[in-house]
Automatic annotation (TrEMBL):
It holds the Pfam family ABC_tran. Belongs to the ABC transporter superfamily. Transmembrane segments: none annotated. This is ABC transporter ATP-binding protein. Keywords: Amino-acid transport, ATP-binding, Nucleotide-binding, Transport. Signal peptide: none annotated. InterPro entries: AAA+_ATPase, ABC_transporter-like_ATP-bd, ABC_transporter-like_CS, BCAA_Transport_ATP-bd_LivF, P-loop_NTPase. It comes from the Bacteria.
Amino acid sequence: SASAPLLAVRDLEGWYGESHVLHGIEFDVAPGEVVTLLGRNGAGKTTTLKAIMGILAKRKGSVQFEGRELIGAPSRAIAKAGIALCPEERAIFSSLSVDENLMLPPVVKPGGMALDTIFEMFPNLKERLNSQGTKLSGGEQQMLAIARILRTGAKMLLLDEPTEGLAPVIVQQIGRTISRLKSEGYTIVLVEQNFHFAASVADRHYVVEQGRVIDMIPNAELGANTEKLHAYLGV
Ligand code: ATP
């Protein structure tokens, strides 16, 4: 049906070795939606993204994407299904140029964003095409990391703290990028510590605490829930 979620996470559990950190994460993302995972440090947000992407070795439960179960699938099959993760540490090849970084990720699925569109969306990257990754500013590195996952053809993007450590003007640029991606039909799960940024781009917010989703707040109802959120986030 039209309201079927694109991504449905149910009873998702995850471990690092013997350490049990996800205790039954549940949330849905509708096609074209931007949702955030909010919560304190160590709540399990990054681990949730890793479990969805299949790069957390020990996980169980259910992750359905377009109605297909992905929980047992290897990460390359998950990428091929159309999900991409942009990790917190901005996985770019720092010894390679912008150009080389954009050519290296395999287009794992037809429909990867064309380079022309990428350069239109990130004009800075075009100017710095021959610059080595290490010479880029933090903001440029983040743009490159996002550009690389757009090359893969994924339609669901998992973005882990894309604004971390960036100047306000760059944070605004990333906000505009996310809004544009949404308008083009991408679906986005965003882990954020910058609450104002989260409120400026997302449709709904899921609150993660100790490896569980304990609440969901529509963006339009944030104002009425400020106190509750402050208590959740400890701010
Ligand atoms: P943060 O903003 O600090 O990244 P988070 O909500 O993303 O917070 P996670 O990184 O998912 O939290 O961490 C969840 C729990 O798992 C924490 O207790 C953390 O210490 C632990 N953890 C994270 N990475 C590892 C790892 N590689 N090995 C063992 N434990 C880990």
